[in-house]
């Protein structure tokens, strides 16, 4: 909501121009006229759109101004005595401004219409009958003052001096004068180191605005640049929008109109102008929340958020609930809301300027109790708050101030403690650890460097987490509090550019992780035994890093051990085999490399260990079982090449009692095919999955 009329009763008046006993100006997005000696003003336009630079014609019958009624700024005119406003131009340029009148009664306007750059504003004379405008032969200019000699202002940066105070760049305004009236312009006041604007002919003197003494003021001199005088004070606000009728000068300052009756001995005096009508722009009106949305902070349940909209803070439920105004006082700005949980209740903290200086206000998410007000802390101690973070337990808030200070504010006592200070800018990226014990932030150094720092919230001891060598920012703790992640511009991997013969550094920013305790291993570091694919991650220490998981302690049938491991569904296609299947002595379909249902009960099988022996032309199978181990002690099966005679021996088993042989290698299927030579990759047999070997001694 806007400020009600009781808060601000005076209007903000700009762009004055005078003629006779009338003064024209803009206020509340309309053009007004008022008696020069003070009194009630009346509207010339009623469009309620941005307007600027109204100018009364030399004969005093018409007012011309720039209006955005139809979108782009265009030239409009209306009778002084009242009547319908007419649009004279259809240029569609965002840099169109009315600057006055020509001697023959045409409107003098500046525009970039038809130009390739918004800096190339040309002067044009627009007839009142709506005919084509004449382009004046001065080239790109910022203003024109017609008088004894033509004075031009160079094309400026596009904004007035009060919007960019003490600008000294190459597009600062400069005066040029044609003293001989032969079209040759020379520089005027070349020695003034300031931004000059609004040149005027007042009698035989050239008046203009300049800030070469630090503040925008009205000056005047003779045509040759001598006798430079200042006519307005420097201790006040910038003098702006100067205009003249040839004898008097009127200007605006701090939203008020001032007049100089002459440039000799007169002092500026304020015009007492009162606006009539309903003052619509001072009445409260609804605004579009999406247009003025500032920030939002959801609570830990994600059922609601604290939302900042145009200087107010509201609690908005995400589904099927009300919206509550937590801070919506006219004339007070609330910003940067943060949610936290304390004593089993959701709370909201935000920054407020209710007392002039920034302070913190706390209130429950359900809103203050009837008749109560939010609790306010640390008023006048914080400076201008640029960032706010709240500890997860709600015990304290972290504040980044505009002067480089990092502060901790205790919620219970309101005490503000300084943690650190930067001489190179504002700290950023404030974040608390999950247990609220540590605070991390990005600490700026000489540009563009920054580093990550940590502070203990109890004793305020500060530790450098990263050196000041790169641009480190946006820290974040992991949920377990063991690691600190952050972004850093420290990747220097140049590649050749595709368009120009040069090297470029692409993707220089990457995320990084810091372990916060010496006993915490890196989650990305190597492990001595490698990383298992099917076992879940487990907590490790430097002493146990990479060790295999403990063996199963189950006793009895291995069925429980096999079933405890993840298996594919009965209809799934089996994955490539491994040397050991389930580790329990069961050959299943997943290991044998074929689809099909899996056995519900594992079958004991022998364990095969191959040892090389001289080749033999006999028909004896190269795979010979030496014993049949129990299901509880079998450790797996092996699969190897069949070229040559090999024997498989059960590790730790008693001596073999029988030896079964195959009459021919083609009577059984070895590892992958019916041939005696296994396929690359070693897929297991296509035989039944009931066992790893049968009574015939044919291995699978």
Could you provide a short overview of the structure?
With 700 residues, this protein is mainly beta.
Topology:
Layout lengths: L13 E6 L2 E6 L2 E6 L3 E5 L7 E6 L5 E6 L6 E6 L6 E2 L9 E5 L5 E5 L10 E5 L7 E12 L5 E4 L20 E3 L8 E3 L8 E6 L2 E6 L6 E5 L7 E2 L9 E5 L4 E5 L2 E5 L8 E2 L2 E3 L17 E6 L5 E6 L2 E6 L5 E5 L6 E9 L2 E11 L1 E8 L10 E3 L7 E6 L5 E6 L3 E6 L5 E6 L6 E5 L5 E7 L5 E7 L5 E3 L6 E7 L5 E7 L4 E3 L6 E3 L3 E7 L43 H6 L24 H4 L17 E3 L33 E3 L52
Parallel strand pairs: 4-24
Antiparallel strand pairs: 1-2, 2-3, 3-4, 5-6, 6-7, 7-8, 9-10, 10-11, 11-12, 12-13, 13-14, 14-15, 16-17, 17-18, 18-19, 20-21, 21-22, 22-23, 25-26, 26-27, 27-28, 29-30, 30-31, 31-32, 33-34, 34-35, 35-36, 37-38, 38-39, 39-40, 41-42, 42-45, 43-44, 46-47
Provide the residue-averaged pLDDT: 80
Question: Shape, please?
Answer: elongated
Oligomer state of the chains in this structure: single chain
Strand order, main sheet: write it out: 9-10-11-12-13-14-15
Give helix % range: under 10%
Number of helical elements: 2
Spans of 5+ residues with little confidence (pLDDT < 50)? Answer: 1-9, 552-700
Share in β-strands: 35-45%
What is the β-strand count?
A: 47
Q: Specify Rg, calculated over alpha carbons.
A: 43 Å
SS content category: mainly beta
* Terminal-residue CA separation: 81 Å
Q: What profile does the largest beta sheet have?
A: 7 strands, antiparallel
